Amino acid sequence: MFGGMFEEDEDAGMMGGLFDQDFDESTERKELDTDLPPAPYLRREVSLSKNTMASLQDRLLDLEREELERTTQCNNAITRLQAEIEREKLKLAESKAKIQREVDAVKQAIDKCKTYQESLKKEGKLDDHLEETACGVCLEQPRDALVAPCGHIAMCYACSTAIAKSKNNECPFCRVRIIGVYKTFHV
């Protein structure tokens, strides 16, 4: 029995020590509790924080929607511009093909004129005087037109005015743009 009582006293001593620790912790808690704001204030702060968080989430969603809308608008604009570029490329290719056809037609006409001129020379129908005074384009009419600003008198009035009115209104001899054609007369 003695031993049992001793053990109980030991336990009681230990318990007393535990109670002392509990007392110290509760004292510390009371000291901590005095540093904290009152509960209604904390509830209000939590409520404000929740409202702020909700408002920030709403703003974030709005910004994401705006970004998606801007991205969609940019993508639509890019698509429209790409389509316009493709249309312009087609127009350019068509214009290039048309210009090439016109150039080919002019080259054929020049070759035809040269061939005709050479055949006339071989036949002796084109004498030196006629060669010097005949239009350099049609080889039929006399040279009677002055082309400005280059000053060439190498074509008939009909050929020079036709060239001046064409899209490629350049002197066929020097490639200067024709500003005017003047009829000349030999005295």
Note the main sheet. 2 strands, antiparallel
Radius of gyration: 53 Å
| Model regions low in confidence, pLDDT < 50 over at least 5 residues | 1-23
Q: Write the element-wise H/E pattern from the N-terminal end onward.
A: HHHEHE
Question: What fraction of residues sit in β-strands?
Answer: under 5%
**Average residue pLDDT:** 78
By DSSP (H or I, 4+ residues per run), the number of helices equals 4
Question: Helix proportion of residues, in percent?
Answer: over 70%
- Derived from helix and strand composition plus strand pairing, the structural class reads mainly alpha
| Shape call | rod-shaped
**Count of discrete domains:** 2
Got a strand count?
A: 2
Distance between the termini: 165 Å
How would you write the strand order of the largest sheet? Answer: 1-2
Structure description:
With 187 residues, the protein is mostly helical. It has two domains: 2-84; 135-187, Herpes Virus-1. Helices cover 72% and strands 4% of the residues. The protein has four helices and two strands; from the N terminus they run αααβαβ. A two-stranded antiparallel sheet has the order 1-2. The model is unreliable at 1-23 (pLDDT under 50).
